[in-house]
Design brief:
Strand 3 and strand 4 (64-72) form a beta hairpin. An eight-stranded mixed sheet has the order 6-7-5-4-3-2-1-8, sandwiched between helices. By secondary structure, the chain is α+β, with helices and mostly antiparallel strands. It has one domain (2-160): 3-Layer(aba) Sandwich (Aminopeptidase), CATH 3.40.630. It has four helices and eight strands; from the N terminus they run E-H-H-E-E-E-H-E-H-E-E-E. The chain has helices at residues 11-21, 28-36, 81-93, 109-118, and strands at residues 2-5, 41-48, 51-60, 64-72, 99-105, 121-126, 137-143, 158-160.
Length: 163
């Protein structure tokens, strides 16, 4: 598996994964804006045998990395792909920023448990955050300065910083 920055040609595959994984997916236009709209935005891909199998989008802010999306194709889940994407983000941002934050649906217990296993902690709530059903979002944070590196269950992961 290779983890690399996304390019414009990757947007259709990323948008397809978004539609498969989320009730409120980012559109291809949203992803295009994230990819091209700011030098502070990153969109990382997990790729295996030439196929995109997962992605992580984030914004790099002053002392924070804000995760905007993290998704893995359903047929490739529970193989350490999301852990590998997060592990690489942590390695790349440790020493540059203080923490990583994200929102997760109150009802998404599996995702909450996954993030807790990585080392994220609950730090707040956003009431009526999700447009489709006014569900509350939990804010979870990972302190980059306090913890050891995340150990990925993926044995061979390569990071390419060029798209």
């Amino acid at each position: 598996m290779i983890i690399r920055l996304a390019g414009l040609n990757d947007l259709p595959s990323i948008a397809k994964i978004e539609r498969t994984c989320f009730t409120l997916p980012f559109t291809e236009e949203n992803l295009y804006q994230q990819l091209t709209g700011s030098r502070q935005s990153r969109l990382y891909l997990a790729e295996s045998e030439g196929e995109i199998i997962g992605h992580l989008g984030c914004w790099l802010q002053a002392d924070e990395v804000k995760i905007t999306t993290l998704a893995v194709r359903p047929d490739r889940r529970r193989q350490g792909i999301a852990s590998a994407l997060l592990s690489q983000l942590i390695k790349l941002q440790r020493g540059l920023r203080n923490y990583i934050s994200l929102e997760v649906r109150l009802s998404n217990i599996p995702a909450q448990n996954f993030y807790k296993k990585i080392g994220f902690k609950l730090s707040g709530k956003k009431l009526s955050y999700y447009r489709d059903n006014n569900e509350t979002a939990l804010i979870m944070c990972y302190r980059l300065s306090d913890s050891a590196e995340v150990q990925s269950s993926v044995s061979q992961t390569t990071v390419k910083e060029t798209a």
